[in-house]
Amino acid sequence: MTAKLLPSLLMAAGSLLLAWRVKTLIDALMMAQRGAETNFRSITEFLAGQQTELPMIGFQQHVERSQRLGVWLLVLGFVMVGSSGLLNAYLLWAGF
After folding, report:
1. Can you tell me the distance from the alpha carbon of 85 to that of 79, in angstroms, rounded to the nearest whole number?
2. Threshold 0.85, pTM exceeds
C-alpha cells in the first residue's frame, strides 16, 4: 500500500463510520418519538377511563446500549476523517 492511498482509505472508513452512526441516531430518535406517542396515548386513555392501569414504556436499555459503543464510533469516525486530511496535507508538503 502506498502512502498516497492511506488518506483516501482513512477518509472512506471514517465516512462510513459516521454515516452508520448517524443512521443509528436517527433510528433512536424515531423510536423515542414513537414511544412518546404511545405514552401520550396511554395517558390519554387512562385519564378518559378507558384503561385501569397506566403502562409505562421505557427506553433506558436502548439509550445505554447506544451510548456504550456509539460515542466511541462517532469519535473514531471524526478522528479518521481528520487524520486523513492531516496526512494528505503532510504528504503534499513532503512532496510524495
Report:
1. 10
2. no
